[in-house]
Amino acid sequence: KFFGAEDKYTFEYSMDEAIHGENPVLCKYFYYPHVIRLTDEEMDAYIDAGINVFLPMEPAAGMDMVALREKYGSKVAFKGGIDKHVLRKSKEDIRKELEYKLQPSMYNGTVFSLDHRIPNGTPIDNYRYYVKTAREILGLPEIKSGNRGWGRMAF
To answer: What is the DSSP-derived secondary structure letter of residue 146?
Structure first.
């Protein structure tokens, strides 16, 4: 019993039952799981169940959104995927990460961002280089100094 209630409050479903079952409890189009790591079998099960957006695509956990795009094509979309830890490495490492992740095959169906927040200890020069380099690779205009606020966040 949950707080003395008679109703059952713990449920167990497969992804398919939760979305397509007799009494579905998840919305097919608006459930975007926050996943750190999925095996190929788990990724296939999510896609078969109608889930097609994945975040944060954490590289430190072995998730490679470029390889997954090659495997699944336009069946999936991603948010995140840029290794947050690279911001504490060299500018060469930052550029290498961005050139790999921001390639044209990823432009459709990807919201490019760090896989999580900016890590503590990130040098501000590295963060600025990350933003400037990403904008350059994506063909976005340079941020004008003095332009502040939400309109200029990240890329």
So the answer is: T
Helix (H, G, I), strand (E, B) or coil at 73: helix
Residue 125 has pLDDT above 90, yes or no: yes
The first and second tokens of residue 132, run together, are 């400037």
Query: Cα–Cα distance between 100 and 34 in angstroms, integer?
Result: 23
Across the beta sheet with 77-82, the strand order is 34-35, 53-56, 77-82, 110-114
38 SS3 class:
coil
User: Cβ(64)–Cβ(115) under 8 Å?
Assistant: no
50-56 contact pairs (CB < 8 A, 24+): 50/19, 50/20, 51/15, 51/19, 52/76, 52/77, 53/77, 53/78, 53/79, 54/78, 54/79, 55/79, 55/80, 56/80, 56/81, 56/115, 56/116
The mean per-residue pLDDT over the stretch 80-94 comes to 96
pTM, full prediction: 0.74
The residue type found at 13 is Y
Residue 145 CA to residue 115 CA, distance in Å, equals 27
The per-residue pLDDT for 2 is: 47
Q: For residue 6, what are its two tokens?
A: 């008679």
